[in-house]
Amino acid sequence: MGEGMDSAVVLEEVHFSYPGSERPLLDGVSLFLEAGEVAAVVGPSGVGKSTLLNLIAGLARPAAGEVRVLGTQVPRLGDSAAARWRGRHLGFVFQQFHLLPHLTVAENAALPLALNGRSWTEGEVAAHLDRLGLAAQAGSYPGHLSSGQAQRVAIARALIHRPALLLADEPTGSLDEETAEAVLDRLMEVVRETGATALLVTHAPEVAKRARMRFRLSRHRLHREA
Ligand SMILES: Nc1ncnc2c1ncn2[C@@H]1O[C@H](COP(=O)(O)OP(=O)(O)OP(=O)(O)O)[C@@H](O)[C@H]1O
Ligand SMILES: [Mg+2]
Q1: Per-residue pLDDT tens for 166-179?
Q2: Which of 2, 16, 81, 162 is the most exposed place for a label (fewest CB within 10 A)?
Q3: 168 in contact with ligand 1, CB cutoff 6 A
Q4: Domain 38-53+79-225, second-level architecture
């Protein structure tokens, strides 16, 4: 995979602005995560946490600075190469879930396997869903789910192909405390089993507590917290 194999995520002095904004949203953000690291990012609403995940995933491009993820210089990938790269190496729990409405829960969850040309059985997907408390929903469509169920489907989809990097944006934001605990247990179990690197954006102290490294995004930069 070339250079940077030791570090799973490298951001160096990243600058980013949305078009038309007066000052940069991110103004010199740096982040280094070794492979297998579990890190959390906290910070107030609107500070740029989701944008930061999008930059790491190649869904947004920095105005300046280096973004190297799993040894790949993500901003240098074209759109379709970036999509293939994401499909293979990343699990992304989007804040707004982004489930595909015309696919069932099981089909949504299995999507990364399909995109990677992997074969699977209904039983495997059912077992995976069961571990997230979604056994009864396998045949349902996203429009018929509660938001907590939809969030768990988004998590199931992000983990099913055992990605090297998990990006999770408020992964328990729609879950009650008890369900959040169980879902986080499962998420951390997969991360540990696979040696994945994980970056979790959260407002919940219980989620941040699970991470070994904690960062706060404020004043346009990332700051390491104790
Ligand atoms: N596509 C976009 N075009 C223009 N501005 C955007 C876009 N997406 C986000 N923004 C703006 O950038 C800022 C950061 O947004 P972002 O979604 O990254 O914040 P966040 O920290 O994830 O917030 P929250 O905790 O509410 O999810 C906000 O002011 C938002 O309005
Ligand atoms: Mg956000």
Answers
A1: 999 999 999 999 99
A2: 2
A3: no
A4: 3-Layer(aba) Sandwich (3.40)
> Each residue of 206-224: pLDDT tens digit?
999 999 999 999 999 999 9
Ligand with the closest atom to the CA of 49: 1
Using the mean position of ligand 1's atoms as its centre, give its distance from the Cα of residue 191 in Å. 27
The protein residue whose alpha carbon is closest to atom 5 in ligand 1 is 18
Q: Which long-range contacts (CB under 8 A, 24 or more apart) does 154-158 make?
A: 154/93, 154/94, 154/97, 154/98, 154/99, 155/93, 155/183, 155/186, 155/187, 156/108, 156/109, 156/128, 156/129, 156/132, 157/91, 157/99, 157/108, 157/109, 157/111, 157/112, 158/91, 158/92, 158/93, 158/112
Closest residue (by CA) to atom 17 of ligand 1? 50
Alpha carbon distance 82, 72 (integer Å): 10
Q: How far is the CA of 51 from the centre of ligand 1 (A)?
A: 6
Q: Is 72 in the pocket of ligand 1 (CB under 6 A)?
A: no
Work out the mean pLDDT of the chain and round it to a whole number: 95
Q: How many CB atoms lie within 10 A of CB 24?
A: 18
